[in-house]
Amino acid sequence: MPIRIPGELPALSVLSDENIFVMDDQRAIHQDIRPLEVGILNLMPNKIETEVQILRLLSNTPLQINIDLIRIDSQAPKNTPAAHMDTFYHQFEDIEHKKYDGLIVTGAPLALLDYEDVKYWPKMQQVMDWAKKHVQSTMFLCWAAHAAMYHFFGVNRALREDKLSGVYPHDVYQPTDELMRGFDGRFFAPHSRFGHIAVQDYQNAGLNILAGSEEVGAYIAASHDKRMVFVTGHPEYDPETLDQEYRRDLAADLNPAIPLHYYPDDDPTQTPLVTWRAHGTLLYTNWLNYYVYQVTPFDLTTLA
């Protein structure tokens, strides 16, 4: 079954060209099933690119999914047309009465700011508290994962001197957990962050660390009740995303390090290697199946 998105959303044509089954609202109303309700709080500046990346990963499942794109900042981002935001995004106040089977909160380019200095931090806190009662399972990505650790457990991230940038190997620590089902014992995933939280801090918070490595620390952690998932990297990244970030920072004279394990021989003149997309898709498929669909109530109004 497909993901259901507005018929004019740019992601629709991109995903259709990739032979990914998506449907618009008109076709979806004829489906006599109970679809999953999934919200995406998109904090990335290039909204359209991130929409495509995440919707692509949500599409590889037999479940029908209704998508709500959510915003908490009324100011239009400089990399996304205001008309796009006005047409396709819901203000949080307009959907906070709803309950969702799943919620995805993306990363944000805010690594060097204290949380209290983020202009929408009070709203972010409100959303995280709301999700505990209105969402069956929430997946926090990169900056959002660290922000959730700070909000819920009082754990503040440290800032690395150099950005962790590249595609890193990870080991599965708990192969019997449903979120890790089908994963190779060692797999790859992109990272692009300055923030770091020690493995011990996740453990002290009572979370299961499902995958990670000595080089990057914890990569995937989850609460025992499956209602919070913390992913410190970017499994949704396109093949060229790290390259674009690297060249953007070069152009800005930020002297970025070359993303590791990404270009052949770490040579940025060569085409990047793509080693993470299968496991990225599997992560989202497992989350939807085992952390959302298998445990969510049929009647979402009973979710507590």
Tell me what the structure shows.
By secondary structure, the protein is an alpha/beta fold. The chain has one domain (3-239, 280-302): Rossmann fold. It has helices at residues 10-17, 25-28, 47-58, 82-88, 92-95, 121-134, 143-153, 199-204, 241-251, 277-293; strands at 3-4, 22-23, 36-41, 65-71, 89-91, 100-105, 135-141, 158-172, 186-196, 208-213, 217-222, 228-231. Strands 1, 2, 3, 4, 5, 6, 7, 8, 9, 10, 11 and 12 form a 12-stranded mixed sheet that branches. α1 (10-17) crosses α3. The longest helix is centred in the last third of the chain and has 17 residues, at 277-293. The radius of gyration is 18 Å and the shape is globular. The protein starts with a strand and ends in an 11-residue tail after the last helix. Residues 27-32 have low confidence and may be disordered.
How many helices in DSSP terms?
A: 10
In whole angstroms, how far apart are the ends? 27 Å
Which structural category fits the helices and strands?
alpha/beta
Task: Write the element-wise H/E pattern from the N-terminal end onward.
Answer: EHEHEHEHEHEHEHEEHEEEHH
CATH class: Alpha Beta
Domain count: the total is: 1
Poorly predicted ranges (pLDDT <50, ≥5 residues)?
Answer: 27-32
Q: Could you describe the largest sheet, including whether it forms a barrel?
A: 12 strands, mixed
CATH architecture: 3-Layer(aba) Sandwich
Gross geometry:
globular
Percent of residues in helical segments? Answer: 25-40%
Overall radius of gyration: 18 Å
CATH overall fold name: Rossmann fold
Indicate the proportion of strand residues. Answer: 15-25%
How many β-strand runs?
12
CATH superfamily: Class I glutamine amidotransferase (GATase) domain
Rounded mean pLDDT is 90
